[in-house]
Amino acid sequence: MILKSDQEVSIAKVQMVFAAFNDSVKERNSLQFDADLMRRVRVIDATSAGTAVLELDVGNEYSNRGGSIHGGAAALILDQFTTTAFIPLAATAAKQKDGYHPPGGFTRAMNITYLRPLPLPATIRVVSEVVQHGRSMSLVRGKITDKGGEKLYSVSEHHKGCTLGAAWAAGGGGLGKCKL
């Protein structure tokens, strides 16, 4: 019997949740504005310690008039993808008994610092790490860098509600089971 490493299992969980998201968008024939990003993202790394590294090609459709990433687009990317660090901590989508529920709960607050313009088009990395994880509230830090991780463009603190409470850990899923 070959045992998979923590990294392999964590990456597989992230890929499974992303596939479930994309399938749910197709099934509903949805025009969700985050669906385009979900189709483009590539999982580079993830661990059960609550970390994730993603790569994404961002085109000019996300730029401002100056040709750099629009602040709102950077916020969407950080909001959508910093939550990925929670996925290895959650029950897999296959274990969720009442349909697909992303294991990220909802955004309570998000602070973003834009450090320099990010010229587009570009391939970026989104790196995230769970800092604190509780029953009903959690904190994840994220950053947007260039593909090599050398230039830092934006950093965020993402405060989440109902991320992975007891219902998630048991595989039950759903925000309806979260008590604030």
UniProtKB/TrEMBL annotation:
Protein name (Swiss-Prot/TrEMBL): Thioesterase domain-containing protein
Domain Thioesterase: 66-151
Family classification: Belongs to the thioesterase PaaI family.
PANTHER family named among the record's database cross-references: THIOESTERASE DOMAIN-CONTAINING PROTEIN, THIOESTERASE SUPERFAMILY MEMBER-RELATED
UniProt cross-references to SUPFAM superfamilies, sorted A to Z: Thioesterase/thiol ester dehydrase-isomerase
Species for this entry: Lepraria finkii
Listed InterPro entries: ACOT13, HotDog_dom_sf, Thioestr_dom
